[in-house]
Every structure is written in C-alpha cells, then in structure tokens.
Amino acid sequence: MPVFERDEIAIYYEEFGAGYPLLLFAPGGMRSSIDFWHKSPFDPTREFANNFRVIAMDQRNAGRSRAPISANDGWDSYAADHLALLDHLKIDRCHVMGGCIGSSYCFGVIKAARARISAAVLQNPIGLHENRAAFYEMFDGWAKDLKRERPDLDEAALASFRERMYGGDFVFTVERDFVSGCRTPMLVLAGDDLYHPAPISREIAALAPHAEMIDRWKTPDAVEAAVARTRAFLLAHRD
Fold first, then answer.
1. Burial letters 53-76, b for 16+ CB under 10 A, else e
2. Angle formed at CA 26 by CA 208 and CA 66, multiple of 5 degrees
3. 100: helix, strand or coil
4. Alpha helices, DSSP H only, in the chain?
5. Which pLDDT belongs to residue 9?
6. Which residues pair with 211 in a beta bridge?
7. For the chain: N or C, fewer Cβ within 10 A?
8. Measured between alpha carbons, how far apart are the two ends of the chain, in Å?
9. What is the spatial distance between Cα 31 and Cα 233, in angstroms, rounded to a whole number?
10. Alpha carbon distance 33, 52 (integer Å)
C-alpha cells in the first residue's frame, strides 16, 4: 500500500501501467479519492494504463490520506502535495487529468510549476456560476464528518480554509487572465450541472490558447468515443 509521507502529511497513491506519466486528481469534492474514478463514466486507471504510467492519489484528508489542517490551508497546499509526490516518484514532467475538483487541482499545479506539465485533461470542471452556497455546503459536510474522527480540529481554521478554497471566482485556483495566457494543451470534457456548470467549461475552452472541448462524454453511447479522443490527445502531447 504505497504511502508518501512528508512532515505530518501522508498521501496514499496507486500506480497502473507503464510509460509516460499521467497524474490523476479524482472527482469527489473535498473527498477526492481514487475510488471515485471507479464509479465515473469511464475509469482512467483502467482505460489509459496500456499507454501510460497512471498515478492516482487520495487527496489530503480524503480516502486514505491524512494531513493537519490550519487557517492557511488552501489550493496551494494541494499543489505542494502534488509536486512533492512527483518529486518522490522522480517524475520531472507529466500529463495531468482531473475530474470535478481535480480540474482546479490541474490548474493549481500548472500555476505552481508550468514547465512540469505537458498537457491537461479537465473532466467536469468545477467553477463559480450562481452556486457558491453549494460549495460551502459541500465543504461543511466534509468538515463535519472529519470532526467526528478528529474532534480537536479548530472551527476557525476550518472556516478560513473554506474561504480560501471557495471564496474566489471562476475555477477558484486561477483567474481568467492566467487561463488566457496558459499555453499548456488542454482537453475539456464539459460539465453540465450545479457544481460543474456548462458556462465554466465553455469559458475555459474559449480562453485557453490550446484547448479542445468534448461536449458529450458521460452517457453510455458517448463514452467510447470520448475515451478514444482523450487517449489520442494524451498520446499526441507526450514529450
């Protein structure tokens, strides 16, 4: 059971296949963990393991990963975990793919170390579109469950953490100007619901200089073509 530890943080991860590295950030909101991939319309740990070294992880304080919580935590904390895991695995450059909150993690790690990311697949990207209360409620549900296990967690620290995560705009991790100047190739698998608004997907695809978009990918009749196109995109942008 591979666990990467640094300071007081323990990150659980799994590897599938071999080849050019593909780092996955799972759906699930604050509960983002590997198991959510297995319940998704398609599972990249299975679909892409024949072509890539696929690395999936449980985010801090989700699934089997653990970390302290402070008032200064936020998107940068997650990006630091992602880069530390790449360092631990001796990976200098890789693709990233994120579902749901994982799309914003993709932007966060590109912002932190753009030269290390060769391409990004953004599946069901989250974003602000008349839905901030839903993100706060999602965070609060996760925090309530976490406090049952760790009653010593500080309410003020959790409140600050929540604001640093979901008090911003657009995709929360980066601003529109960043996306419009980001030359990393991107494939957007469009969202279409409360947490994954279609206007956010369209805006990402319109702003990013090297972005493509797939509108239909979730339904059984569309999955096979979406997987094939995603695989072709990832293969085309390997170093």
1. bbbbbbbbbbbbbbbebeeebbbe
2. 125
3. coil
4. 44-47, 75-88, 101-112, 132-149, 155-166, 176-180, 198-207, 220-236
5. 98
6. 186
7. N
8. 30
9. 28
10. 20
Count of Cβ atoms closer than 10 Å to residue 207 Cβ: 17
Domains in the chain, CATH or no CATH each: 3-236 (3.40.50.1820)
**Does the pLDDT value for residue 98 go beyond 80?**
yes
Q: Match 């024949």 to its residue by tokens.
A: 50
Buried b (16+ CB within 10 A) or exposed e, 123-159: bbbbbbbebeeebeebbeebbeebeeeeeeeeeeebe
The structure tokens listed for 115 are 């030269």
Mean pLDDT of 157-170: 98
Q: Are residues 106 and 98 in contact, defined by beta-carbon separation less than 8 angstroms?
A: yes
Residue from 166, 24, 157 nearest 98 by CA: 24
Tokens of 232: 């072709």
